[in-house]
């Protein structure tokens, strides 16, 4: 890996193209390095993972709405949409939109956390949609997804967005554009313009994940994927983009991030170096914010020692700065204690999540968020006894470069009504690669089977999984099989209609 120094520059200080971060990203994407077997296997795992969580979300209102918008844009050859027949194709940017919302709705797929945070699996819908539309094969799809994951992870390692209240899709637009460019085997000059355009139009604020969190939390990554496809299309037609988008005097760093005093260190593969960043990412066993994964496991583990949760006087979670300030009491969000809060808000409340996991001895992607579950008096009482504090040791481990030191859990101190304390800690979730039971291909398949039960017919489940097993060898026609079809009565019901319905 090469560590690149990136900072804002005045317009008078001419910055050669080869020294610009967007060019370096484009060069990495255009580098035709073969995808190794281990990376190919993990890409297959994440395709299964995305399909699993999409199946579970298929009838939820945001997914129904996005699918309806996509269905109003039929196109040939086009791309497939989760739930619909593979013969019913839509324009690729709209397929990426619909599938991106389905994948993101339950906050239940893969994650990478470093200087910033991300869900790299959000790259799969746009890259796959373009691959299907453009008649690419499995090998080209693998190349595109390996590149997208690499760029996403490297940007997340090097540039912190959330400290400036910029949403993490600002790293997703460039990574998806780079991945699409790699899959299409475009020259670096074209990928450069697409990366710059995608960053320019996907740099948004974090209000989508603050306060009253709405369904836009699921739509935001899909928007970035959609914009990436449009950016690549525009660049392929010979059009340019704002440059230098990262370093420019009025660029992203100068005006939206750290300003002219900030210096960022972004690692990128050297020429000829394999793109292996996907192996540094992790999926979720539970449908909750990633920093909650280890704490759910810890709640399960501590439950027997605590006994009756009604005896709890207080629970203090000592954890990282990020966990404390984003999903903990450090956020200052009263909505995180509101039993009437949206699912998206509860998903970002570690106080709620820990209370339910402690009472139930586990977590369920639907039942744990049900309105009557959130309003249960015993839960509300326990929930309001829970607080978080930042512990510098956990913050340091959160940002550690050494994977063996990196941690996303915390130490929990439970005080009972008799004054007795029960203390335990857990660094990483059980499903993490360094955890008690790391996820392997059988675990991804089990997650898919569980979430697809009652949604996707067993024979269709088998067909989809068999297609993924042949991923490196899929033909262009076979790529249409990387989706699933369900009976129409399992697609949910549209309550409202929009502009596209009226024009369609």
Automatic annotation (TrEMBL):
Domain MmgE/PrpD C-terminal: 286-471
Keyword field: Lyase
Annotated MmgE/PrpD N-terminal domain residues: 20-262
InterPro entries: MmgE/PrpD_sf (IPR036148), MmgE/PrpD_sf_1 (IPR042183), MmgE/PrpD_sf_2 (IPR042188), MmgE_PrpD (IPR005656), MmgE_PrpD_C (IPR045337), MmgE_PrpD_N (IPR045336)
Top-level taxonomic group: Bacteria
Lyase keyword on record: yes
Record SUPFAM superfamilies: 2-methylcitrate dehydratase PrpD
One of the record's GO molecular function terms: lyase activity
Quaternary context: Monomer.
Family affiliation: Belongs to the PrpD family.
Protein name: 2-methylcitrate dehydratase
Organism: Tistrella mobilis (strain KA081020-065)
